[in-house]
Every structure is written in structure tokens, then in C-alpha cells.
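Quick question: what would this complex look like in 3D?
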Amino acid sequence: MVNTVLNILDKVNTPDDLKKLNTNELNELAAEMREIIIKKVNTTGGHFGPNLGMVEATIAMHYVFNSPVDKFVFDVSHQCYPHKILTGRKEGFTNPETYHKYTGYTAPEESDHDLFKVGHTSTSISLATGLAKGRDLIGGNENVIAIIGDGSLTGGEALEGLNNAATLGSNIIIVVNDNDMSIAENQGGICNMLTELRQNNGEVKNNFFKALGFDYYYVGEGNNIEKLIETFSKVKDTDHPVIVHIHTIKGKGFKPAEDDREPFHWILPNTLDRLNDAPAPQGESYESITKEYLLNKVAEGSPIVAINAATPGVFGWNKEFRTKMGSHYVDTGIAEQQAVAMASGVAKRGGKAIMGVMSSFIQRTYDQLSQDLALNNNPATLLIFWGGISNADATHLCTFDIPLISNIPNMVYLAPTCKEEFVRMLDWSVNQNEHPVAIRVPFSITYSGVEDKTDYSDLNKYQIVEKGEKVAIIALGSFFGLGKEVRSKLAEAGINATLINPKFITGIDKNVLEGLKSNHSVVITLEDGELDGGFGEKITRYYGNSDMKVLNYGSFKEFTDRTPIEELYERYHLKSDLITQDIENVL
Amino acid sequence: MVNTVLNILDKVNTPDDLKKLNTNELNELAAEMREIIIKKVNTTGGHFGPNLGMVEATIAMHYVFNSPVDKFVFDVSHQCYPHKILTGRKEGFTNPETYHKYTGYTAPEESDHDLFKVGHTSTSISLATGLAKGRDLIGGNENVIAIIGDGSLTGGEALEGLNNAATLGSNIIIVVNDNDMSIAENQGGICNMLTELRQNNGEVKNNFFKALGFDYYYVGEGNNIEKLIETFSKVKDTDHPVIVHIHTIKGKGFKPAEDDREPFHWILPNTLDRLNDAPAPQGESYESITKEYLLNKVAEGSPIVAINAATPGVFGWNKEFRTKMGSHYVDTGIAEQQAVAMASGVAKRGGKAIMGVMSSFIQRTYDQLSQDLALNNNPATLLIFWGGISNADATHLCTFDIPLISNIPNMVYLAPTCKEEFVRMLDWSVNQNEHPVAIRVPFSITYSGVEDKTDYSDLNKYQIVEKGEKVAIIALGSFFGLGKEVRSKLAEAGINATLINPKFITGIDKNVLEGLKSNHSVVITLEDGELDGGFGEKITRYYGNSDMKVLNYGSFKEFTDRTPIEELYERYHLKSDLITQDIENVL
């Protein structure tokens, strides 16, 4: 791409600068912003379609309102790049050297124009009701504006927020950014309701928002700055709750993204340069194995159903797969609570429910795991993807799923270390009728080369992979490889350590642990997640009344933020040489 | 009360028997059922108003549908007594000797007519979508009927369920039991929407349910069996999603409960015999102290707001208190996610948010604690009531809040042991601006007699209450008294133990723990909740590489169900003599 000439943007450093521009200049600004977003995101990767769709609306909002006195709360903040550009952070988009300076989400530490650190969906309305209530108690008079996508609107928190916002009795403006897409297709009655509104220019017989008590405005041309300014000006300083429903075009300004919106929701670096390349051949992965397993089950006539909450891409559940699955596939929308409860209901009725979910998002459904699923002991299967320590944004950490899931009674949480175990565990889980089961699917596939014939119905049986003495290494799931490395390092120091693959996160194998006492003095546990409330502490508790020394390895209780993984491994001593040193210190 | 003559009910043992009755007999049956419910609940305590309101609808449902082939899913199951009476469990209501035989909630282990063990709200629609999906995959053709109260309809899971049910494309019938009340008054746009429907006999300009795509039926006389049968017969075997909105009278048939519905939602034994008694004088309690504190703050002009999710009675936030608080009180409806996010928003805007919540219900909002509150480090205060081991129903256990809250980064979770500490912690929390804080409010009040002057900003500082040697007792919150007892017992055995009040659940006082190493060989931890993922395991992990023996005491990872507390204390060794024995065994 050629260098961008930023005639207008060069003059815009704060929202105030924006207010001096005329309509033509605002449109030119939009074009310039769109160009730098495309260029930047294609270089670094990031959210693409949602940001392109919101350029005009963000300009119009900043033109009409007075941020940061007036408060914008962006839902999930997949669409906050235009806002960042207009609020003092344009260098993060114009200068390749500072492309990585700002997070891809709203972040109060970056700017007063960002109210909350947000990366999970469906929170903006609820957070905004709090800002509005705080304002009313203190006696302010600013506008509070929540911006929420049509996809996010299906989440329970958003709907609870709508219910509350409707009767707040004071200023709150909810901008529904309706681009007719979630990450994948939208789902459910809310989607249909929005479609009907769009198709009828906001005039329908039964208006959902009006039914809840909102004043309702529709802007069909949600990428038309003039129309947006006109409507935002009307609702500014309102004394009551208002919905402004704007119809925007996801991927606006980049034709391939307008035409095929799902793959352009979030893109990898250099995606746009490879549009015409043949798709890269995909090697075997836990995702591909899962898909194959599910499709085979469907072919066999099993009442199996793959359930997910609006993130099918996480598990490679692409359009082709979804089409093949047909009625055996359910996307609940952004609604993890519904997904878990539905899985429990399917299992109760004798169906086979497999829910896929990213570790960070299983957090959105604790009570349903506990009450709807575990208390009822219904045999649904949850596949938890991406669990582990990473360099992710603070909003997308995947280190908390073990403390979350494994302390719930009745849950069986399994940690495969290789393909062979994963396949066996998945098949066992689908065919049994006794337990709610979760499986922590590792990120990268490995192979043991040996068929796994374990009967997982015999709960909490650990596998002693190598029998040694003095030191025992209990290496869970994706850290089994690290366990092997530690064993090698110890061997160099003349120690023939025992290596254990626990397989079960949710229980203690007392026989194995008791057996270690006779000729071991140190046990270490390795887990790819938070130590506090995690797997290792339970082992340590077991040995509390004995002479066994126990060292637990995993991540600390902290929100890390795009911290390089090597730095984290160093900090947490998750390296074989550091661990070996620690062991030698206590031996 | 006189003995009840059950002319009709004597002949009704299964739903089939019901189908043989004529209208007069059905009405007589309703009267008899109502009478035994009143008598039974007045003897044992239990849910009163909701069950009285649902007598006719339950009769009509069982008359029209064919349970257990057709599947009823009762939300929260506050209204399942009539259903239990009609499905083989009437002895639980007619015979005082078997009054306690059945749980107050639906329970599949009791009857095939109960699909799920349910005690938390807003789950029925989601669970029913799962039953319906399972049916469709397997090829069944039964009716799936979710019964949900107007109060429960404000919960995020219920709304996610509605969104999904609307586009299920097959049979699902949602009976909205609208008695115009949650436990307390209903809140929000959904409440107003239902009111408008009731006031207009189901005919309004903007119908919320129709907007979502449901077929909609309204039954204004929701306690009229004939009318109900007529409508249920119309929707039976529908091939698409249907809402049947019925207007019932909470407390129907017992005048005081019809007139003043909140106190009769759930009643204590013998309540009806003492209706004219003057209210018993209330002693000081953590609830009364909290209320006084909040009212004082309002009087001082503080931007304080007390927030709760539809259970004000748990904290004694009665009508008088709510009226005095005025705009400083918010009931979000059954919407804990909204309550936490709103509290975070209020705090961000400089307001002082105090959210009250029962331990069992904090489970309904993990991700909001983590993302909306803790990640943003907003200084809201959560008061967690009733946390601890109890003889509660499996659906209402309060033993999981420590693992849930304390493993979230940034959260400060405090455990006062007495009034003095509670008052200090509450005031500190309200006045600081650094941390999201939760306080685990003990059930029973105790006094130290010494003003607490601790600066809790100095995080994770434990208090050494008694300095001894050999054995250290770390006794958390409501188990501090047990810690003192253990210390006394040990003294009898000649051991002068150290007693520690940790105060902070969320952190380790390394100085104190390290200091114990010099002249202690055993540390015990006592916590009134689940051991797995709890407080004590973190202490044990700290000592993992040392010679210190550590014994952790708390509840096991299990769903207990109305188990007597003495039995649980025995099982968990939560008795000073058992603990002392354990200690002597490792010394």
C-alpha cells in the first residue's frame, strides 16, 4: 500500500478539533481513518470488520457529544479503534513503530476517554447504568452513552442491563450498532427482531425496545455522518432512556470484508495481501479431530449436538462444518449461560451435547455449571479451548478455568496430554451417562504414539509414566512436556524422577500419592494456569500432614497484559532449569 | 386449624386421576390443595405465596398435558408444591409425620415428574430449550413446558433462553406466571411491560414477546381453572414457540398474603398463628448495623447506593429501610450480573456502591466480578451474607463463595470475626478508592469488646491474637470462635498454641507465616466453606517447601442436601476435640 496522506486527520488531535470541521471534511476524515485502520490492522492483526463499520458513527458521536465529560462505554470494544484515533492515540494507527503501543480494547490507563478495560461482551449497558446512577447521586449532568453491537445484545448481562436502563429515569443513551452480524451469524429472536426493524426503517408493529419503555430512534444509514449527527443531536441531553438503533455495514469500505463478514471480524497480519492465495493446508489439530469426531457421530445417527456461544471460529467450526452438522449444530448467540443450561437439558433428554468454549469465556457461566449442570449430574461434555498461560490481553486471559471449574462438585475435568488421550476422553465422555465432563483441550497437538485404552469411568486414576525415586513430577495436561523436560534435567543431575500424568484435574489419586511417600521426598506439580485454587494446591493439601515437600508451579493470581510468554515463564519458574534448581534446593 | 377433609384429593394419586374430574371437582380439588399447603407450610416453613398462586394453573397443566411424557420445568421451583401434591407426593403435605420427606424444590430423585434439581432462578427456559432440542434430535413429540415467574424473567439466563427459544422452530411452551411480584417488588422495563399487558388484557401496541417472535396467549384469570384449561388445550402440541402469559394472584386464598405479598413469599413455621402479635424485638445484627451505617451515610450526603438483586430480605432491607434510602437504593431485579457491573460503574463515577448478596447467589456473577469489577479495580463494596456450612437444600449451599471470589486477581476479600472488625472494614472499604472489596458477613454477631483501628489498606496483614508455640491456629472469619475453642482444648493438653485472625481471605501474610517457622511445627487452618480452592490451601502451598505440617479444615467438595449441621461438622472434623486429636497425631 502507498503512504497515506492525512490531510484532515493531521489536524485532528482531540475531539474538539473535530467539531471545527464541515461535512465534507468529516467525510474525508472518515476515509482517512478507514485507510489507516485497514493498513494498521493488516500489519498487526486485530479486529477489522467491526471497526470499519463504526468509523462514521464514532466521528458523529465525538462531534455531537463532549467526551470525556460525556461518557462513552464501548461494548467488548471490538469497535474502539476509531475512538482511539480521535482521542489522542492516532500514532497507534499512523506510525508503524508505535502500532503496538495501544491495546486493541478500551483501556483507562491509556486515556480518560476510555472508562473501562473491556474485552468480554455484553457489559456496556450495565456499566453505563452504573455511571448514570453515580452521576445522578453526585449531581452531574453529562450524557452517558453505551455502544453495543447487535451480537452482544444477546448476552444475559446486556439484557439485564436493558431491563434496568429502561427505568433509570434519567439520561442514558444506548447506541445499538446493528451490523447484522455477531462474530458469525446472529442467532435468536433478538436477531430476527432487529432484522424486522431494519427492513421496515424502524417502524414495526411490535417494537422490542419500546415494549421495554425506551424512546427509540432508527438510523438506517448508519455510515452517513450527517444523518447520525442529526439523530445524536436530537437525543443529546435527553432526560430519559433512549435507544439509537443504527444500521452500519460491517467491514465498510473494504469490499471483501463487506461481502464475507465472518473471516474479517478479526484478521491475522497480512491477511489482505493473501486474499487470492489458496488456503494454507491445515495440519491435524484438536479442532480438526473434534470436527471429524462430531461429523462421524452425526453420520452414525447419534443424537449429538455441537453447541457454542457465538465463537465457532475458536474451534474451527467454520461454515462448511456448520452446514454439514445441520440441526446437530447450535449457536446460542453470545449466551454462554444458555449454552451450558441447554447442554444440560439435551443430556437430560438423552441427547449428546458437546459444548465448545474458550477458557476465558467459560467465566461467563459459573452458576449454570454448578446448578444447571453439575448439581443435576447430567452427562454433557464441555470442551475448554485455549486454557493456559499466554501473552494475551488482560481481558482475554485463559488461566482461570481450572479454579473455576474444578472446585465445583460432581464435575469431572480432564486434561489430556496428547491426541490419543483426547480422542479416548472425548469418546468416553460422549458415551457415558454418569457425569458432567469438561476436557481441557491443549493448544498444540502432540502424540504419544500409543493408543489410550483407559476407562475414564474409573475416576481420578493417575498414570505413573516413569517410575523413579526421590522426586515425583505431576505434570498436568499441556505441561506434561515440561514435566518430561524436568525429568531429563534431573537425570543429568543423577536423579531418576518419577513422572506422573494425572489426567484428572478434579480429583486426587490417593493410592498413587500415598505410594510416593515410601521413596520420594519431593513432589512437584505443573499446571498451565493459576495456582490459586488450582490443581496443585490439592496435592499439597493432601501431603500437609506428612514429611513430603511439595512445590507447585503455575501462574500467579494476576491480570497480565500482553506480557511476553517467555517473561511469564521466567517469572513463574516454568522452565526446566529453574525448576530443577528449586528441587535441588529442597532436596 | 381443624383437620382437613380431602374428598377429592383422596382420589387423586397421579395426574391421570385428575383427568377424570369435572370442573366442580377440579375447583374443589384446588380448595383442598390450598388448605393443605397453608397448613403444611405454616408448620414447616417454606414458600407460601408463590405456591398458593399456582394451584389452579398446576391443576390445569396436569389436566391438559401428559406428565412425565410431557415435560414441566419449574423455574426456581418456589411454586412446585401443587405439582408435588399431584405427582405422588401428597403425603408430604397431608401427613405431618412426612412433612419433611420431600425437598421444597423440584428433585428428580423424588419423581420422574421432576426434570431438574432447581433452586436458583431464571433457568427454566434454557433448560427447556435443551429438553426440546434433545427431543428433536431423538425424534420425540412430547410437549416441553417451562414455567417461569415474572420476577425470574429479569435474569440474564432467562432472557438468553427466551432469545433462543423464540427461534427453536419446534414445540416449546413458556408459561409466564405473572403475579406482579418478585420476592419484593418487581423492577425494570420487563416489569412495566408485563403490567401494561395485564392492564390491557394482553393487547398492547408493542408486545415484547411477539417482538421476539413468539406466539402469545394471555389468560387474565390465571386462577380460573376452566380458562386455563381452555388456553393450555389450544397450545398443546404446538409446532412452534408459544408464550402463555397468565396473571395469577400471589398468596391466593389467604387474605393477608394477598394483601402484603413480600413477607408471605417464604414464611417461618407458625407465622400464620402469630399474625397479630407485635413484631418481636430485633437485637443488633450485622444486618441492622449495615442498615444504620448506610442511612447515616445518606444523611451525611454521601453518594452512597445500596444495590441488591431482588433479595433485600436477606439483609433485612425491608420496606421501611428502602423508603428511607430513596434514590440511594437500587433493586436490579433478579440480575446479579447487572448488580455487580452497575456497582463497578457507580464506583468509577465516584459514587459509593454497596452490593448485598447471599453467598449462594454470588455464583450467578463470576465474569462480572472478574472483568467488570476486578480487572478495572473499581472500589465497590460487596457484602456476602450467609457464607458458611449449613443444613441448606443442595440448591442453596453457601460454601463456594471463597473459592469463587478469592482466586480473582485484585479482589480484596475480608473476613471479620466480630462487630468491631466488620464496622471498621465496611467503613474502610467505603472510604478507600483503590480496591474492589468483598466482606464475608458472618451469620451471627459476636463482639471483641475492643475497637478495631486496623488500616486495611495495608493488605494481607494477619493479626496474631495469642502468641504461643508448637501449634498455630489460623481461624478465618466465622470460625474464629472454633479457633479459640481449639486453643483451649490444646491448652488442656499442655500446648500453648498461637491463635491468628487472618482477616484477609485473598492474601498470605508472609511475615507472619515465616515467623511461625521458628517455634511451630504444625499450622492448622479453619474456614467456614469449601476446602478445595479455598483459603487454607494457599497457606499449605506456602509451607510446601518447608518442614511445617499443615492441616486444613473446612467443607468437602460436595453438594450436601439438608444434612444436619452437626453431621457435617462431624464429617469435616470441625469440632475442637476432633481437631485436637488430629493435631496430636501429627505432633
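Answer marked as accepted. The radius of gyration of chain B is 26 Å.
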